[in-house]
Design goal:
The protein is mostly helical and 307 residues long. It has twelve helices and four strands; from the N terminus they run αααβαβββαααααααα. Helix content is 65%, strand content 6%. 44% of the residues are buried. The N terminus is likely disordered.
Length: 307
Amino acid sequence: MSASRQHSRFTPDRGLTGRMVTTMFLIGLLYVGFTGLLIVLLRGAWPLVVLISGGLFVAQFWFSDKITERAMGAHPVTPEQFPQLHGAVDRLCALADMPKPRVAVADNDMPNAFATGRNPENAVVCVTTGLLRRLEPEELEGVLAHELSHVAHRDVAVMTVAGFLGVLAGAMTRIALYGGMMGGGNRNNNDPNAAIAMILVPLASMVVYALSFLLTRLLSRYRELAADRAAAQLTGRPSALASALTKVTGQIAAIPTEDLRKAQPYNAFYFAPALSAKETAAQLLSTHPSLEQRLAQLAKISSELGQ
């Protein structure tokens, strides 16, 4: 799409933008500091550290949509295969004045949806077959508007990068410790530098991962509320989105635990979390705000629209 369509009609959210900038700055600072620590401690191996960290980061960012699609079992579908789904996406994209993303479906009975991609032109919106079977057309449009707002606000790309940096810190640590980057045979000698590195690198990696984890969780909860707001305001039907939320959350509770465990690593991308009620009690570690909080916000928007 042309540059003139950089901004959609989804309501801008300065709170979300500020949180995305802050999160990326802090996580980027952590990542740069961690890479610098590896360069100092590994000395002669620093070119390999920079090459690996830079290469993995670029690959994750550039191919994030394909990686996520494959991990979640999504496959592209045509308008002929799913005419109602494509029709809903077409209407919402026209209403929002934004490029139409690729449309995909995951053969999964868990009712859910997600969006991913580094920008609106390379985005994909996916729904599960379980969601399509359970929702009415207006409810489905509410869910799709929620996911499209993630694309329009570009928080999908931020979440992808932010989540990957913490994982990358752990991967680099494993490479450093077990791939011979610490000096090979010198580790068996009484080399104080090697001993210090063996302690500091894993410790720094754990700190980076823990801080990245908490920062992405904070951003994830806010972006879900922002997407609910934007979807309700775009469609003018917050009650339909509230109905979809209630239905999806209730139906997820009936999905086998084994299937939910498989989906949990991708919770931050889903419309509703694949978590049991017991697990969602830990709000600090949750990827989503509580159902009650989301419904209360939608009820407030409904009241405002009624006035």
